Request: fold
Amino acid sequence: SSGINAEYGVKDREFYKFYKRLSRYPGQCLRYDVGGSPLLLPSSPPPCERCGAPRQFELQLMPALISILRPVKPGKVSLEFRTVGVYTCGRDCYLEEGRAAREFVVCVPEPDVVIPTQGGGAGAA
Reply:
């Protein structure tokens, strides 16, 4: 294990587990597992902004998705991430007009990519 860490410069155990798990199904684009456990993502997002219930993991975008997606204007957008996670209200609460409450989205960028944020941190979608 330490030889692998030295070879790839991997210092973070969770990061290593993430890529080891990815190697089982390298073409996997999406993990959908409501209430399940995400890979390489925080397990305790902030509570639902509407009802205060804990949010639960719902889905995760995987790096293989990048090769499938194409920017609207080629050459204008660089789409790179390690993973993106979506968390939803554990009570499935809804806003008025039957619209679902806001999801909480977390993006884990590639180490050399800087993602500008508004409002200081991971945002809601």
Remarks:
- Residues 1-7, 117-125 have pLDDT under 50 and may be disordered.
